[in-house]
Nucleoside diphosphate kinase (Flavobacterium soyangense), 138 residues
Amino acid sequence: ATNRTFTMIKPDAVENGHIGNILAMITNAGFKIVSLKLTQLTIADAQAFYAVHAARPFYGELVEFMTRGPIVAAILEKENAVEDFRILIGATNPAEAAEGTIRKAYATSIGENAVHGSDSDENAGIEGTFHFAGREQF
Ligand code: CMP
């Protein structure tokens, strides 16, 4: 079925000038952009967004990284969106990311890995709502 996923182009990829190329990879792969903005997470935003990782040793580093500069937030629509988008972004660790994936092209490390992709339909809804009001979802 056609459904939606949520993505962020992370601060590393924004700093490195990859917004346009990453959006092109996303739309060339058949995803329709239904919400889009440049924004910056506060510490509280990042702590809440990544609450599921609060007990992990990298949580502090993750919050610091995700708040250090602007990000692009987007909601994407496609047949099988969540699963297909995770294939398009590639493995969390860029060293393990397949050829042709966004992380293979643009991630610099396991922490600074260029893009986020929701891991389930439920989280896609939660994460999209975290960033976008209803009138911003087209
Ligand atoms: P993502 O899968 O989008 O969401 C959780 C993030 O935590 C992940 O991307 C990485 O940015 C980060 N992360 C995961 N594992 C590590 C790690 N071992 N060290 C640092 N950051 C990590």
